[in-house]
## 1
Amino acid sequence: MQGKRQKRVKIFAFRGINMYSENNINQIQMKEMNGKYKYDLNPNNRWIILGKYIPWKRVTEIYSENFVNNKRDGKRAISARVAFGALMIKEIKGLSDEETVQEIMESPYLQYFIGYKEFTHKQPFDPSMMVHFRKRFTPEMLKEINELIEENKNKKK
């Protein structure tokens, strides 16, 4: 690829560094987000309903296993809620990484789904982060989460 510069993503070694901390593991309440909007969110929206079935605490436990170090150096990781939520949005909607980020930027429902407390027009993360999100959730982990989602759906019927 002569003449073309390849974009490189710097990958950090996470040995001994605690790069992850989660403050938002539980589903936020509709009233918390509705107060920040000029309109109310529809509680029957598919993303709001799906968010109730996802075992966010377990998702966070699984995701945080990728960040086992104890130091506080380096940039903080994007939350499990955002990472897993973005992967679900991409898969359900059949989007590219770039389209996923764009959809999240445009939709208050998707922002609610990934745990935002208020709507923003800012890009949630660079689309290249989707590669890292996929690496951090192995097929075995995703299988476990999917089974828990199905269990939660069956409990709430």
Note: Residues 139-155 form the longest helix (17 residues).
## 2
Amino acid sequence: MPFDSSADAPTQQSRLRLVYPLMALVAASALSACGGGDSASTLESASADVAAATSAENEFESAQASGRWSSRPRPPTRPSKPAPSPAPAPAPAPAPSPSPAPAPAPSPAPAPPAGAGRAVPMPMYGVTVDDVSSLAAITESLSRLSRMPTTRIVFDEYQPASDYRKAAVAINKVSYVMGEILDSQYLTTVNVQGYLDRTREYLAALGDVVDIWEIANEINGEWLGNNADVVAKMSGAYDIAKGQGRTTALTLYYNQDCWSKRSNEMFTWAQANIPERMKQGLDYVLVSYYEEDCNNLKPDWNAVFKRLETMFPNSRLGFGEVGTSKAADKAAYLQRYYALKPPVAKWAGGHFWWYFKQDMVPYTKPLWNTLNQAFANTP
């Protein structure tokens, strides 16, 4: 996703994570001074919380310093968990009565079948949906396009897969579906085991309505955390998906002359860190690129994709994210990128305009017509 240099929300969250443990430590110190409770264990626990929060604070500040926080609009109506109901007042104990026979337990719902989703025709006519509220308007906008689109659903951090079941089923009826396990901005919110557990959860819950699984996003970005963990998350998710016969996609981040560390340059990182089994076995290798994030550079895409074709000889190649936040540039930018067709044997297209929900829903917005015409003009 695109940059956001402000980093206000993550910074505020990290400050709160530090304040609460500090308050706990002060309270524990006071308790210890009064001789109350298990003072030693209380102080030790509170000190550990402060240390953990300080580590999280440092991680957020490091991410902020790198300038890597997304400018994507936060979902304005992200569903919130309902507050728990208050406990009822205790009722008088009833007279004892014979216990009724227990009802038979319902049979568990069958798990969605393992295996690949629908075969998506090439090229893909891609859009990205980063917020599934206003679902009826989204599906109407998709259904009216001149080509059957492939919709990339961004699965938000901390959300269970069940939250996306309704949306994925509805979108599947009017579009092919690509599911993004977790956006790169939030990869550091889970450890390796957490990422693999999340992958299994989403594949189990949505495997029958998602056709392509984006097992890792912008995977060479400097903001993704410890490199060994990044590689373990990427390769582990790939192995889980492939082990179930799923169709896999990996999105790289193109950063010619705009990387912070040379080792994270796209080709350098991919050559050093993507295992050979993935180089030979990935179904799709896609590129995320935002010109405004990279000195407004317009790369030689023919040369870029020819190099990728050599590194990933069996993969379909295309764009996994494009877009601009500059309203005046959107139409021309969209037309230019969707018209690209580098001379590679397995060109997949895609493009997956990041701002589909903001720019093309409802379908009466002017940019919907621009996108529709771009689809129609693509052979």
Note: Residues 5-113 have pLDDT under 50 and may be disordered.
## 3
Amino acid sequence: MLIFLAIALASFMLLASSFFFGHDHDTDHADAGHGLDGHDLSHDMEPTISFFSVKVIATLTMGFGAAGAIARQYGADYLVASFIGLATGIALSLAMYFVLELIYRQQSSSLVTTSSAMGQTGIVQTGIAPNSLGEVSLNVSGQYMTYLAKASGPTEIPKGRTVKVVGLVGSQLIVEEIQQ
């Protein structure tokens, strides 16, 4: 019974510390693009929870230890207590996963990614000379933003003209003038 209690206590301490002293890295990396230096270039991902999160795994092992200890206290042998602990741990970890998933879905972010400017129209604030940078202001995700921009062709785009975002290079927009 002591081994089950030790597992439950150690798991509880890990779980409590992950909630009180910081987050574990609960971001799904399935869509992460890696650049030349091996790092994600955009970091446009929303936080999500994983079945392999520290919080979910600690809940599984805590449930295993606690239910195993209770089963042993009531006279079950180690194999039966282990199966009872495993079933309880899985049930509790699934509950933890779904509660955390609900919490993460309720989060919002004021971060406006440059990629959300693709296809949007805006106004040139600082004229864009050929092969040079200017500034374009546009409404992106409900926020009025100003970006550095470069013309897609070799022509100049004067201040006040309407442009459409047709590409991105890092945090700079590639725009073309909309003829009116």
Note: The chain is about 40% helix and 20% strand.
## 4
Amino acid sequence: MDTWLIILIVVVAVVLLAALALAMSKRSRVAQARKREQAREHLQEAHLRGARAEQEQALADEQAARARRERAEVQERTALAEQEARERAARAGEEQAAADELRAKAEKIAPDLAADRHRDRQPGDTVNPDYPEGGATRR
């Protein structure tokens, strides 16, 4: 084989290898650019989802705080109503005791008058027998 033919084959092989390397390099750059774009899209989506998550968390925290506040208000109203009921029951007991005491004094002073007025009445009975629970009550 001639020398110039060998040189030509070597030059063609080197040119082909250079072209192949160039094509691989360009393909690599294109793939890298595509990956960078995909990474940018992922970062943008992550930012949007993070913002939505923060907003949802803030709403959830606000809702939980509102529920705690409402529960505290209900507990406070319940405690107040129970206290008022205890005070009212205590006053009723005091009034009943005073009534029983006055009734007993009236019987001592004028037994016939007390017997005529409330023949069937026992201590602790309601005043009006038509309303055995003591009248109108809220339940």
Note: Residues 9-115 form one domain.
